Amino acid sequence: MRALRALSAFALLLSALALLPALAPSERAGVAVTANVTYTLVGRFLLANPSNSTVRDFVYVPLPQNTTFQRSYVVSMDPPPLRYAVDEDGNVYAIVQVEAGPGAKLWVRVEYRVSVAGYRLESAPRAWPPLGIVRKYTRSSGYWNVYNGTLIDLAYRVAYADAPYDAARKLAEWVVNRVKYRVQFSRLGSDHAVARSLLDYAIVGDCVEVADVYVTMARILGIPARTAYGLLLTGREGRMWLNMSTAAEEGDRLIEHWGGHIWPQVYLAGVGWVDVDMLDGMQANVGAYSERHIVFGFEEMKYFGSALSSVCVPSYLTVQYAEYEYRGGSP
Length: 331
Hints:
The protein has 331 residues and is of the alpha+beta class. Helices cover 21% and strands 38% of the residues.
């Protein structure tokens, strides 16, 4: 038993050290920190066994990432993690093992400590990023079809510019003014999220579709782009919850109590990855990032995003309910 506890403690220590940022926020060129908040974040996930036999299952629990603007570690997890793993995009998650009898239900609980820095981009570089980064992050992949003729024409018409920041800003202004928000329970991708209206185009869907359209059009313009996903908190303290059995019936009312979120990022030379969360206040927030974000991962090759079930991913059991409680204070 002591050996098992020691291994669990060592695993928790490894999660605290994983993916430490290379630079502190204050060391990023042209970036000013606007706020610092440390959150206690507790997630609870109710799993059910719908089969008539006992199931031993592996459950994958995404962890808040360590980035330039966020530091995170696991305080506790029940059941304790078997190990930590990293996916294709470098995102860290915990693997726990559970056992549930026929029709049984069980809880997975995890507590995190997450320090987040809000920031503002004060100066924008005029140079384009290195060719290797441009090639890697402007490919057509998954839900980002950079060969879509309509999106190519739109991107060059509404956002072409000589400098990447200028193009990223013009694109954000165009996108945010055309959002027709609708909670979407299946991911459309950029090909199907842009709809022709009577006089112009509209982006139909939720944060996922908005992010997919922006990333696709940014990549068309040669701007390295990807998505970040996690939570957008409503304040310094609160609770968000999600009942899988009523989510479809709730529709757009879901966002009244759930804050799963996804937003784009663009890569600027000399600065690195810059957040573009246009739905935070419905503004063209290129490099204006609030401390209410908690990043759980990034999408480059693997598509996880803010899907309702992605907060906790069992192999055979089903997620019936999820909630997060959070409380923030000074670091």
